[in-house]
Amino acid sequence: MEHLAMLYLSNNYLSGKIHNQWRDLPSLGIIDLSGNNLQGEIPSSICSLPALFWLKLSSNNLSGEISFAFQNCKGLTMLDLGENRFYANIPKYTGKDFLSLSELRIRAKMFSGNIPEQLCSLTHLHILDLALNNLSGSIPSCLGKLGALNSLISYSPYKPSRSDLYGPQMQMETEMELEMEMKKEMELSNNLQGEIPELITDLSTLGTLNLSHNRLTGKIPEKIGSLQRLETLDLSCNHLSDPIPLTMSSMTSLNSLNLSFNNLSGPIPSVNQFLTFNDPSIYEGNPELCGPPLATKCLMPNDRDADGNQHVKTHKDEDENENLGFYLGMALGLAFRCYELMMMNLNRLRRMMGAEHN
User: Fold this and answer.
1) Using an 8 Å Cβ cutoff, are 216 and 198 in contact?
2) What is the pLDDT, as a whole number, of residue 102?
3) Chain centroid to CA 280: how far?
4) How many domains does the chain have?
C-alpha cells in the first residue's frame, strides 16, 4: 500500500509489538494506533516516514526509552504518547529538533526529572500536556514566551472526517466533518516546586492552565488577570498563599475554577465572574479564606475597628490600673515615711524637753 496516506486503527484490541516495516509507506502522514494493547518499544523506523506529521500512540502498554526512537521525527506537528509505560527524562532534543510541533502530549507516564527549557523553543506549540508524570524542579519561566500561546492565530488540529475515512458519499454528515477549534492548553500537574512564574501571565490567548497537584508556593501572580481568554484555571492542591488577586475579577471568560487545598487567605472576590462560582468545594482546604460561597464570614471594617478599639481600650484600662497601683503604692510609701519622720521628730522633742526640765 505504497500510496497509503492515513492509518487509523485506534480503539481496538490489538496486541503485540508495533511492526518495524514502515519504510515502504512513503506517503503515510497520519498514524493513530491509540487505545489498544500494544506492547514493547516504539520502532525507530517509524520516523523514517518522510511524510509523517501526525502520530498518536496513547493508551497502550508501550514501554522503554523514547530518546532514540523519535530523534529523527523532525516533521511532526502532533505527538501523543500519553498513558503508556515509558520512563526516563523528557528528551532535550524535543525542543531542539521538533520545531514544527503544535501539540505535545505525554500525559500519565513515568517521566521524571525537570521540564527541559529547550521546550521553550517550540514557538508553534498550542498544547503542552505533561500532566500526571513525576516531573520535579521549577516551572521554566521561559514557557511564558511560547509565541503561539500569545497569538491570535488559532489551532485547528487535523481531525479525520467521514469523507476521509469512508469516501465522499458521507460528505453530508457534517457533524463528523466540523473541525472544532482546539483550545490552547498547558497542563503541568506533577511534583513541581517553586513559585508560579510571572511570565506565565503573558500567555494572553491561553484557554486552559492546570498547575494542580504540585508543591508550588508563594502567591498567585497579580497579573494573572491579563489572561483574558482563560476558560479553565486549576491551581488546587498546592501551597499557594496570600489573598486571591482582585485582578482575577476581570477574567470574564473564566468558567471553571479550582483553588482548593492551598493556604490562601482573605475575602473571596464577589464581583463579575466570581458571582457565578457558587460551589464552595472550589475553595475548600483554605482555612483563612472567607466570604460567599463559604460559610466563614469576613469581618466588616467596622467590626474590625470596633474590635480594635475594644482591644486598645482593654489595654488602656490595664495600663491605667497598673499606673494607679504604682502611684497608690508610692503615696502609701511616702505617707508611711512621713509618719516615721514625724514620730522621730516628736520623740526627739520630748527628750529635749525632758532634759531642760531636769
Assistant:
1) no
2) 93
3) 19
4) 2
Say which DSSP state 239 is in.
Answer: -
Q: Does 208 share its domain with 250?
A: no
Same domain, 189 and 272: no
Q: Which residues contact 189 (CB under 8 A, 6 or more apart)?
A: 131, 132, 210, 211, 212, 213, 214, 234
Report if residue 82 sits inside a domain.
yes
d(CA 193, CA 81) in angstroms, rounded, equals 25
Grid coordinates representing 217 are 508556593
Range of the domain at 84: 6-165+180-217
* Cell reading at 297: 464570614
Residue 224 forms part of a structural domain = no
Q: Provide the CATH number for the domain around residue 56.
A: 3.80.10.10
Quick one: pLDDT at residue 300?
73
User: Would you state the pLDDT for residue 133?
Assistant: 92
Alpha carbon distance 296, 309 (integer Å): 23
What's the pLDDT at 111? Answer: 86
Quick one: pLDDT at residue 347? 62
Is 255:231 a contact under the CB 8 Å cutoff? Answer: yes
Q: Does pTM top 0.85 for this prediction?
A: no
Q: Please write the tens of the pLDDT for every residue from 123-144.
A: 999 999 999 999 999 999 999 9
Same domain, 199 and 114: yes
